[in-house]
Amino acid sequence: MARVLYDGLVEYEDETPATTSQMAKDVVEFLNWAAEPEMDDRKRMGIKVLAATAVLFSISIWVKRYKWAWLKSRKIVYDPPKETKVTRPYRY
């Protein structure tokens, strides 16, 4: 099969040099976009999910730090039982 892409075959509006490798890259990008047209929507949804996760994570840290501080900062004191005097030992 003969070559399909040649240098200077296309003129780009932004004056990008129309080399064979540049045109091949453009064809590959187009085919990738045509294969997955919903990719842009997925990326947008991913950014929204990451933002919501960051907000919820921040709220959970705030709740843990300030709302549960009284529970984590309490002091547990051991109060041993009082000693009683035994007048005579137990006999069995």
UniProtKB/TrEMBL annotation:
Give the EC number.
7.1.1.8
Where would you find this protein in the cell?
Mitochondrion inner membrane
Q: Which key words tag this protein in UniProt?
A: Electron transport, Heme, Iron, Membrane, Metal-binding, Mitochondrion, Mitochondrion inner membrane, Respiratory chain, Translocase, Transmembrane, Transmembrane helix, Transport
Q: Which GO terms describe its cellular component?
A: mitochondrial inner membrane
Which cofactor names does the annotation list?
Answer: heme c
Q: Which GO terms describe its molecular function?
A: heme binding; metal ion binding; quinol-cytochrome-c reductase activity
Q: What class of enzyme is it?
A: translocase
Q: Where are the transmembrane segments?
A: 45-63
InterPro entries according to UniProt: Cyt_c-like_dom_sf, Cyt_c1, Cyt_c1_TM_anchor_C
> Could you tell me which Pfam families the record lists for this protein?
Cytochrom_C1
Any idea which positions bind heme c? M1
* Keyword Cell wall biogenesis/degradation assigned: no
Cofactor notes: Binds 1 heme c group covalently per subunit.
- GO terms of biological process kind: mitochondrial electron transport, ubiquinol to cytochrome c
Catalytic reaction annotation: a quinol + 2 Fe(III)-[cytochrome c](out) = a quinone + 2 Fe(II)-[cytochrome c](out) + 2 H(+)(out)
Q: What family is this protein classified in?
A: Belongs to the cytochrome c family.
Name recorded for this polypeptide: quinol--cytochrome-c reductase
Tell me which species this is from: Parascedosporium putredinis
